[in-house]
Specification:
By secondary structure, this protein is mainly alpha-helical. About 65% of the residues lie in helices and about 10% in strands. A 3-stranded mixed β-sheet has the order 3-5-4. It is globular.
Length: about 260
């Protein structure tokens, strides 16, 4: 049973291999893009129902102005782009869901400071959607859960009392050993793509270094998990990688 389960998962993985734009990295995509976009829309609507939407015209104009330029630079005119500002000064955050559903929390705006800083954030978050990182993560989770389920069935045939224990241990091991490191890879990929998108949109990608340094300073004193358990690269690693990618990004940059 175990061999059969793994064989089915292996076939599914090969059949669902996709390529990330620009970077050319191969990724697993079990979920169809149409289903992924619908899930993104549903999640976005649910979020907007729970959160307080900002009515500040200045902030909304800025997010719309910068966001539209970044969106145009991606070439995904088929996305139904939406940009919302969420009034939450404590949330230093932003996100872009599949299909171009973008939200910026007011708590991150003091760190972005200006249009270029905001372009860094939006470039990064929009890159996640363009690279279909959400669908990739879900596909990874489905594969991991399939392997865990298959292992539990196989072990239960030998020792039913230990089946759940082994399945649980394998699930924990898979989470730390596979899913989190891969998430850090996605974060770095979004940094790289984000630099290119902001450069294409006419924002100097060199300003991204300053933004991430400000983010690092803002996070000082906050509790952080060890790097190997974090879904994001360390601040030092992120800044070093961005500096290394700047020549590539600058090749796309044209001063407006």
């Amino acid at each position: 049973m175990m061999r059969k389960t793994l064989w089915i998962l292996a076939i599914a993985a090969l059949a669902a291999c996709q390529t990330v734009p620009i970077t050319g990295r191969s990724q697993l995509q079990i979920l169809g893009e149409r289903e992924e976009l619908q899930m993104g829309l549903t999640a976005f609507r649910d979020t907007l129902k729970r959160e307080k939407i900002s009515g500040d015209p200045r902030l909304n104009d800025q997010v719309q102005r910068v966001g539209r330029r970044i969106a145009e630079a991606t070439g995904r005119s088929d996305y139904q782009w939406e940009f919302k500002v969420i009034d939450d000064a404590k949330a230093v955050n932003a996100f872009c869901l599949p299909g171009g559903k973008v939200a910026v929390y007011t708590g991150i705006l003091p760190v972005t400071r200006d249009d270029a800083g905001l372009a860094t954030v939006l470039g990064h978050e929009i890159a996640h959607a363009i690279a279909r990182h959400g669908g990739e993560r879900l596909s990874q989770q489905l594969v991991v859960e399939g392997v865990v389920a298959g292992t539990a069935i196989a072990l239960s045939e030998r020792d039913p009392n230990k089946a759940n224990l082994y399945a649980g241990l394998l699930g924990a091991g898979a989470t730390v050993g596979v899913l989190l490191p891969y998430s850090r890879l996605q974060e770095s990929e979004a940094d790289r793509l984000g630099l290119i998108f902001m450069a294409k949109a006419g924002y100097d990608p060199r300003t991204a270094v300053g933004f991430w340094r400000r983010m690092s300073d803002a996070a000082k004193g906050a509790a952080k998990p060890p790097a190997f358990l974090s879904t994001h690269p360390t601040d030092e690693t992120r800044i070093r990688q961005i500096e290394a990618w700047l020549p590539e990004a600058l090749s796309y940059y044209k001063r407006p």
